[in-house]
Amino acid sequence: MDLKKVKAVLFDLDGTIYYGSKRIDGANETIRFFRDNEIRVYFTTNNSTKTRKQIYNNLKGMGIDCKLDEILNSGYLAALTAKKYELEDIYIFGSPNLLEEFKSQGIKVCQEENAQNLLIGYDPAMTYDGLAVALRVALHARCIIACNRERVFPGEDAKLMPGCGAMTAPIEWCANRECDYVIGKPNTLMIDVLTEMTGISRKGFLVIGDTYESDIVMANVAGAMAVLISDTPRRDVPTVASIADIPKLF
Questions:
Q1: What is the distance between the alpha carbons of residues 220 and 203, in angstroms, rounded to a whole number?
Q2: 120 burial class (0-12, 13-18, 19+ CB within 10 angstroms)?
Q3: Which residue, 41, 34, 91, 93, is CA-closest to 67?
Q4: Angle of CA points 93, 94, 100, to nearest 5°
Q5: What CA–CA distance (Å, rounded) separates 141 from 124?
Q6: d(CA 214, CA 228)
Q7: Which residue stretches of 42-188 are H helix?
Q8: How far is residue 50's CA from residue 122's CA, in Å, rounded to a whole number?
Q9: Residues 72-124: pLDDT tens digits?
């Protein structure tokens, strides 16, 4: 790979920088490699259970070299999307932190069944009753936003866990309608936002992640560069076993 073509790097978090609460060996060294070469670094995640500031604090607590404005998560981007389209009276089906993210952006939320719009986020504490309320909102909602449709993600010790797709799919199925906007990867919104912020073209971004159907597909659709972290090599994308191996590609 040609390092001169890379203007900014988008690191995935779960399974790339850390597993659960444990930083992966070589993460800081690889981040430093790009910073030392004057390449911008960003951290992207489909995780909407925490606010952007909480993700920043978690990364700092793990000893990860990062800044708050380098972090983009699907909850924060969902809030930006709601503001862009002037959506109000939004019912939040997700974590309390997702609700707080929207309130911090000055967006009017409505945790009642007569809400005009619906946001679906990842919530490991979801209940059947909560799902039922979200369904009833979806049946009449003007707009439905999903933070993502991710099937699984790596949790503690790399054990696979159900992703936000486990919340999104049953609502879409039961309401017999699809979400109007899906924010997270493989949607290219994260790259598009950074393109607007930095002026860097899509082809100048390098996406590094461990999930082909979200990280790599996003890069492919955007026309960006990509590296997959996996024990199974692929012919269509550079593949390494660990984040520690990435500098060796250049």
A1: 10
A2: buried
A3: 41
A4: 110
A5: 24
A6: 11
A7: 52-61, 74-84, 96-104, 128-140, 165-175
A8: 10
A9: 999 999 999 999 999 989 999 999 999 999 998 899 999 999 999 999 999 99
**Stretch (H or E) spanning 22:** strand 22-23
Tell me the CA distances in angstroms from 25 to 16, 113, 242, 245, one per residue in order. Answer: 10, 46, 8, 10
Query: What is the Cα–Cα distance from 27 to 23, expressed in whole angstroms?
Result: 7
| Residues recorded for the chain | 250
Beta pairing, strands 143-146 & 117-120: parallel
Q: What would the pLDDT profile of 18-57 be if each residue is shown by its tens digit?
A: 988 889 999 999 999 999 999 999 999 998 999 999 999 9
SS3 label, residue 86 = coil
